[in-house]
Every structure is written in C-alpha cells, then in structure tokens.
C-alpha cells in the first residue's frame, strides 16, 4: 500500500466544488487545527504573482459573500492517505490577506477560516421561544436550519434532564444560534462542537458530555528505536490544578443556599492513571444558586472533570511514519516515556500542516493521573 498523500480542495458557497488545477499548483501550505475546547480553524497559503488570476478569483468570491443573506464561502479539505479519503476540515472563509511580491519574489494570498460553527453566528434570533422543550430538542431544532451544510445533529441527553413547564416559564433564545447553543451547553455541563463526518461534506454537530472513552488510536512511540513514530514528546504535571467544586442549591421555602461538594464521578471520563490528580483547593461556584438543582449538579460535574487533567503532553509527528492521521477528541496510547507517563491519553488538539511531499502534526494530550491503568496499550 502506498504511503503517498493526496490533498483534495473544494471551495464554493454551501456546496463546494473541486478547485481548478491552477489553484492547486499555487497552493503552498495548508494548516488545519482541531481543538476539543474551542473553535477549529484552517489557513491556506498560495504563492502568486501580481498578474495571477487568483487575485481576481478571491476578490470576487469573497466580495459576493460579505452581503447580508448570502452564504459564506465554504472550504472542504480531504486527505487521501493509503488510498482512503479522510475529511480533514470543513469550514468557511473569514479573511483573505494579500501580500505583494518584492524584488522579483512571488507574493502570497492567505485564506483564513473557521469551522461551520461560524455559520451559526451570523444572524441574531433573540426572542425565539421554545415551549416545553428540553435543551436536546432545542439544539436539534436549531441545527435543522443548517442541513444544507451537511450538519447532522447528535444531541446526548444530560445526566439530570430538566423540561420546563410552560405555565411556569418558556425558554427564549438570546443572541445567535451559536451563542444560545453554548449557553445551553454551559447550563447542563455539555460541550458543543462540529467535526467532519466519515463521508466528505457531512458534519456531526455534537452536543453532549465530553467523552473520554472508546477505542484508542495507534500508540505514539518515543525512544523505541525502529518503532519510534513521533519526532518529539514532552510532558508536564501540575499537582495544583485539581479542585473540588462546590455548588449551591437554593431551598425553595427558606431561600437559603445549601452548599454541595461535587466529586469527579463522571462515567464518561474514567481515570486514565492509577495516581489521580490531588485536590489542591476548593472552587465555590456561587452562580449555581440561581439555577435549578439539576443544572447546578451538571455544571459542577463538568467543572470537576475539567480540573482533573493535571498531566499534559505536547509533541509532533510525521504522518507518513505514524501511518495515519492523529485525530483530536479521541484516546491514544503512549509508549516509551517511562512508568509515570506511559498509558492512555485524551487528544486535546491537533494541528496538521501539509506541504508538498510531507504532512506533519503537532498535538496536545491530557490525562487525569500518573502511571498507566493498563499493562499495555494498543500498538
């Protein structure tokens, strides 16, 4: 099986199409970042001359997509590795910069963009009511507006569901769809992101608890001679990061707040180390007093899970040597780093850089303890 890497670039409003050959020939560098804790982004850099047709193409394409009511310019990146196409990124253009060439050197056009969450942040729908609908139903209804972008909603019910009674209150949207989804996610301790699906031009809009279980990706090997497949890997441990959240639930009769400590007991974020992160301090979450008990507990569980990732690792790898694309928001094994740091990790973010003849990735890993919980990790 060949290890050659082939990049497919598709650009267009809503439904992108393959770009012409001259655009591929001018493409110099592609960078795509996927992060579990924020919006993902991409950047395309083209080498051009002052007479290049690309200057006019991007000027017209971006200019037509800046007026109200017109869809943004969509960009889809597909990497074919080992004969298998893998969607790398699906997003929209947010900025185009042109740098003129000097002293006989070619200039450049840099196209920057974000994932499809940017599309959800373009219009304000404040005041839209959602009577008797839990947050999962509201999320699915919002995502239905963006079916043309291939967005498939995947809402996961919260641990402690809360369905508003219409005679008591009717939830109403505040701000854009993206702002309202993030507000709902914060209320129930969920995360929200959009990532490319297995089929190109389809996207999964995930709304649910952060999941740190599943089948690990092939192990990252360091200092293992011929089996080494990473270029660098550095670790750090912060014993002061662990906190015990304390939420407040208000008594309906006396209006007195009742403090409740929330331990890290999330079954979807099990311990990945035998020696867990020590609890260094308490975090009093006073804003939970105005929430109902179910929302307060959910928010406390989310905070407890985030504070436990005291072990972090940063590194880089050559994808051709690793044999596949490392993916964020999934588990991966680490071998050859020593007893304290070997084992399973959660991939927090990955930045992929493609140039002619090579593809490299920089990554960040996290874990909630030292010493592996498994005797071996998948090779």
Keywords:
Phage tail proteins - horseshoe like beta roll fold; single chain; 40% strand; Thrombin, subunit H; 379 residues; Phage tail protein beta-alpha-beta fold; mainly beta; 21 strands; 13-stranded mixed sheet; 3-stranded mixed sheet
Please describe the topology of this protein.
Elements: E1 5-13, E2 17-18, H1 21-26, E3 27-35, E4 41-48, H2 53-63, E5 73-81, E6 84-99, E7 107-115, H3 135-143, E8 151-155, H4 177-188, E9 191-196, E10 203-208, E11 217-221, E12 232-237, E13 243-250, E14 257-261, E15 273-276, E16 281-285, H5 293-306, E17 311-318, H6 319-322, E18 331-335, E19 343-355, E20 358-367, E21 369-372
Parallel strand pairs: 8-10, 11-18, 13-16
Antiparallel strand pairs: 1-2, 1-5, 3-4, 3-19, 4-7, 5-6, 6-7, 9-10, 12-17, 13-14, 15-21, 17-20, 18-19, 19-20
Summarize the structure.
Helix content is 15%, strand content 40%.
Based on secondary structure, the structural category is mainly beta
Instruction: Report, as a whole number of angstroms, the end-to-end distance.
Output: 19 Å
Which architecture of the largest domain would the CATH scheme give at its second level? Beta Barrel
Q: Give a short account of the largest sheet.
A: 13 strands, mixed
Helical coverage, percent range = 10-25%
Question: What's the number of extended β-strand segments?
Answer: 21
CATH topology of the largest domain: Thrombin, subunit H
| Overall pLDDT score | 88
Which geometry do the CA atoms define? globular
Binned strand content: 35-45%
Q: Tell me the number of helical segments per DSSP (H or I, 4 or more residues long).
A: 6
CATH class of the largest domain: Mainly Beta
Radius of gyration: 23 Å
Q: So, the CATH homologous superfamily of the largest domain?
A: Trypsin-like serine proteases
Tell me the domain tally. 4
Low-confidence stretches: none
The H-and-E topology, N to C, reads as: EEHEEHEEEHEHEEEEEEEEHEHEEEE
């Amino acid at each position: 099986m060949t290890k050659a890497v082939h990049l497919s670039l598709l650009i267009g409003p809503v439904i992108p199409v393959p770009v012409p050959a001259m655009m591929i020939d001018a493409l110099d560098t592609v960078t795509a970042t996927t992060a579990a804790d924020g919006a993902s982004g991409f950047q395309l850099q083209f080498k051009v001359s002052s007479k290049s047709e690309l200057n006019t193409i991007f000027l017209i394409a971006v200019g037509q997509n800046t007026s109200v009511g017109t869809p943004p310019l969509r960009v889809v990146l597909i990497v074919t590795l080992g004969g298998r196409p893998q969607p790398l990124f699906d997003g929209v253009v947010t900025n185009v910069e042109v740098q003129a060439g000097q002293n006989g050197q070619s200039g450049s056009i840099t196209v920057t963009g974000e994932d499809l969450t940017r599309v959800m942040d373009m219009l304000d729908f404040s005041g839209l009511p959602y009577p008797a609908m839990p947050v999962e139903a509201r999320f699915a209804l919002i995502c239905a507006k963006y079916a043309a972008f291939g967005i498939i909603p995947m809402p996961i019910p919260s641990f402690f569901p809360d369905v508003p009674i219409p005679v008591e209150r009717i939830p109403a949207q505040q701000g854009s769809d993206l702002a309202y989804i993030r507000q709902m996610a914060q209320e129930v301790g969920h995360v929200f992101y959009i990532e490319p699906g297995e089929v190109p031009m389809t996207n999964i809009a995930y709304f649910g608890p952060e999941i740190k279980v599943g089948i690990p990706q092939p192990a990252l090997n360091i200092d293992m001679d011929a089996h080494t497949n990473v270029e660098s890997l550095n670790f750090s441990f912060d014993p002061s990061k662990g906190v015990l959240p304390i939420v407040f639930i208000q008594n309906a009769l006396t209006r007195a707040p009742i403090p409740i400590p929330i331990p890290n007991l999330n079954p979807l974020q099990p311990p990945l180390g035998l020696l867990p992160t020590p609890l260094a301090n308490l975090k009093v979450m006073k804003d939970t007093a105005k929430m109902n008990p179910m929302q307060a507990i959910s928010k406390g569980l989310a905070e407890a899970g985030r504070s436990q990732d005291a072990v972090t690792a940063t590194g880089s790898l050559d994808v051709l040597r690793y044999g596949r694309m490392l993916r964020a928001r999934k588990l991966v094994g680490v071998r050859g780093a020593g007893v304290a740091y070997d084992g399973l990790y959660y991939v927090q973010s990955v930045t992929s850089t493609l140039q002619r003849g090579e593809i490299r990735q920089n990554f960040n890993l996290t874990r909630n303890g030292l010493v592996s919980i498994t005797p071996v990790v998948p090779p």
